[in-house]
Amino acid sequence: MTSKTTGIPYPPRVPLARIPTPLELMERMSERLGVDLYVKRDDLTGVELTGNKVRKLEFVLADALQQKADIVLTCGGAQSNHSRATAVAAARLGLRSRLILRAPDPFNPPALEGNLLLDRLAGSDILWITAEQYKRRDEIFAREADRLRSTGSKSYVIPEGASNALGAWGYIYAAGELKQDIRKLPRGSSRRTTIIHATGSGGTTAGLILGAKLLGLNARIVGINVCEDRDYFVRAIGEICEDCISRYGLNVSFSRESDIEIVDGYVGLGYAQSRPEELSLLMEMASAEGLFLDPVYTGKAFFGMVQEIRRNARVFGDQIIFLHTGGIFGLFPKAKELAPLLR
Ligand SMILES: Cc1ncc(COP(=O)(O)O)c(C=O)c1O
Asked: Which residues contact 96 (CB under 8 A, 6 or more apart)?
């Protein structure tokens, strides 16, 4: 389907996200950091369907429907935002969902709270596996798909984070919105903008890089990784971009080394593990701006961004858009860690 406004041949899309999302100036944080800091509110793509995954799922689930699947399979951590968004979106489209989730002890699954509670309310079936088994998830997907086929079901596998060539279209599409957003800023297009976001499985970064090129979005795209390291993401994002370019015949030049910018060094204690200073900044944002970051993705990336600016005030230029990719339900399981900081 070719977009009337961009002329780009987008793959089929099923509308699920409340878009365009707003772009908001963070007045007090801008003053504190000495830059113009805006937040692109992709945490407002919906309520249960909040966050960046919804944009990717618009394209991926359109494909599942086209393939006449009746159940979608996906995977993630116990509090996976992507799995929750998949469960809810599937329910909305009349599909069933089965989630393959990691837990330290699969026989003793984590408490039913946050995203996990919503998964179950949306009717998802959950298969718990260990972190070790998760490394072989492709085999588990294949086994599950075979088993479902033998019961007369047609399954559709969505990779972790919906981060593949098709899912990347969600943020190619979003790049068009960001271009319009920047145009409307007081000194918008005359200043170079840096768009900063959390990188967790790479699909958002890949989509933004390609979208910026395809749509002429004059912005520097910076991902801050919340797990793994820079080399891992240069490889993962590179593969998604290259696959997307060849699969859809995109007329853009792309180089892993010059186009992918990942700021490493803020994984901290590890994926989904928080340091008090990260949680303190999350609380500062909530009280200064009424904006809630999540501890696993946006809170860590925002923390990384602030540290970099404090080290070098102009490292990202003076006009920054922080892309808020959602994740609010990940806050609730952190209540015990947050409580002492609130005293
Ligand atoms: C709230 C949130 N922000 C950011 C990300 C990272 O996005 P991506 O997986 O596309 O790198 C994720 C998922 O991984 C997420 O759930």
From this structure: 70, 71, 72, 90, 123, 125, 153
Based on its alpha-carbon atoms, the radius of gyration of the chain, rounded to whole angstroms, reads: 19
**Bridge-based pairing state of the strands 219-225 and 125-129:** unpaired
Among the listed residues 111, 228, 255, the one whose alpha carbon sits nearest the alpha carbon of residue 163:
228
Q: What is the DSSP string of 145-163?
A: HHHHHHTT--EEE--GGG-
- 101, 169, 201, 222: which to mutate for ligand 1, most atoms within 8 A of CB? 201
CA dist., res. 264 & res. 72, Å (int): 33
The 10s digit of each residue's pLDDT in 34-92 is: 999 999 999 999 999 999 999 999 999 999 999 999 999 999 999 999 999 999 999 99
pTM more than 0.85: yes
**Known active-site residue 80:** yes
Ranges of the chain with pLDDT below 70: 1-7
Identify the active-site residue in 3, 30, 80, 201: 80
Closest alpha carbon to 102 in 129, 80, 63? 129
77 in Cβ contact with 188 (< 8 Å): no
Centroid of chain to Cα 188: 25
303-339: per-residue pLDDT in tens? 999 999 999 999 999 999 999 999 999 999 999 999 9
Peptide bond just before 340 cis, omega within 30 deg: no
Closest CA to 52 of 182, 178, 267, 197: 197
pLDDT at 6: 64
Q: Which is nearest to 100 in space by CA: 149, 145, 63, 151?
A: 145
